[in-house]
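ok so for the tutorial part 2 we go from a plain amino acid sequence to predicted structure tokens. step 1 is just haveing the sequence, like this:
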Amino acid sequence: MGDGWPVGERGTGARTGAAALLVTALVASLAGHARACGKLLSAVDSAHGTPTALGAPTDISVEDANVVKAANFAVVKYNVKSNEAYLYKSQRLVAAKQQIVNGVAYYIEMYIGKTECRKSGSEQLESCAFVSPMEVQHCNFKVLTIPWKEECTLLSDSCSRIQ
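step 2 — the prediction. this is what the tokens look like for a chain of 163 residues:
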């Protein structure tokens, strides 16, 4: 009775405190230096230097190193999956969001352009020139990174040719 808890709420604060502690620990572990896709990634919003909110997609700069890595990964996986004879590469990143889920999900809107490099070639994608006239596709990719497992997965891709 004299434990300081209002009647009917005894113990609720302890559970809430434990849950908050667990969430804080998860965010801290993701916000620290973590590895995903063989690259150093972090779940920190570089514009503000703070961890993103759990469960809610938040805008992130298209210049963020994690976004660029996720976008490059998505294009590589798209090239493997596509029936095209030629490779595509990033032409321009338009927008990005990140969401902390069972890892970090990146939602990326970008344009990719067809290159002169064939899929069967051994050229590095970065050195491949765009075809002229440029053939561009507008794409939306969703990439999931699981830093503690060093995994990266392309969850979805949707691309359409620009006329």
